[in-house]
Design brief:
- This protein is about 35% helix and about 20% strand.
- By secondary structure, it is an alpha+beta fold.
- Strand 12 and strand 13 form a beta hairpin.
- Helix 1 runs antiparallel to helix 4.
- It starts with a helix and ends in a 12-residue tail after the last helix.
Length: about 325
Amino acid sequence: MRAAATTLLATLDEPARRRARHDFDDDAARRWLEYRPRPRPGACLADLDVAGRKAVHRLLATALSPAGYAQAMAIVGLEEVLDRAEGWRRGRHSGDYWVAVFGDPARDDRWAWRVEGHHLSVSMTVVADQVSPAPIFFGANPAAVRHAGRPVSRPLGPEEDLARELLEAIGPAGRSAAVVADEAPADIISATRPVAPGRLEPLGVPRGRLGPGGRALLDQLVALYLDRLPPELAAQEAGRLAGGELHFAWSGPTRPGQRHYYRVQGDDLLIEYDNTTDDGNHAHTVLRRPASDFGADVLADHHATAHSGPVRGGGPR
């Protein structure tokens, strides 16, 4: 990751490098999550040459598994599909994704980066040799494109299908506990807040009340989100969650094609999924660590154990 970020900055020309580089201590720019089409910090891929764009993709690929990277690329491609569906009115395009690097990956103990655009936001914070991988937002509009009743594109299909399989497996009593509202919220609860709700009440059914099949499916659902990460990071996150309680909650009708929402909560874990606009064909998903987003965990550990003096690095030179 450090090598890919260093190569990226070396590949960019000076104007693009100035747009991409930010001070690590610029919290307003670094602690940022925005999955809507908005201006955002960084350098736009549309303004980069082929070498620059490929360097961004190689950096992004260090944070995602092959399957997660394929989902991300499908999400980016949907910008062209959505633009056509809207009659080309908004000028959406698959180059409208941005890269930002915070600090100097070649020299600093602490640095971070983000690749972001409509329905995609991947933030990584690195302190020494520790990577803190959150938030990770994937969305899709349209969530499904079908032809003759068959899906042509459905990048977040597994996230919906596995949750529905879980609902079916836990039976009437489990569903009665898991379904907490007849209507889904308008969007994910954590939204674009730089700090996720740390005291969000765990709703729904706890894992401990499920049978073996339900527990296994809930574990698979969590693993599906963690497996967006490369295997080493996914295993790190799974180990961090081991032994903690999980809660699964659903809002809205349980019939396919209706607007719905679910979330999984655990110890410093918040997974949210919604499909609540455009008649249930516009999906948002996010993996967050409410107490540790944007590297809060590794930064706290670093300050507590690794330094008797000032932290080295933290901004452009």
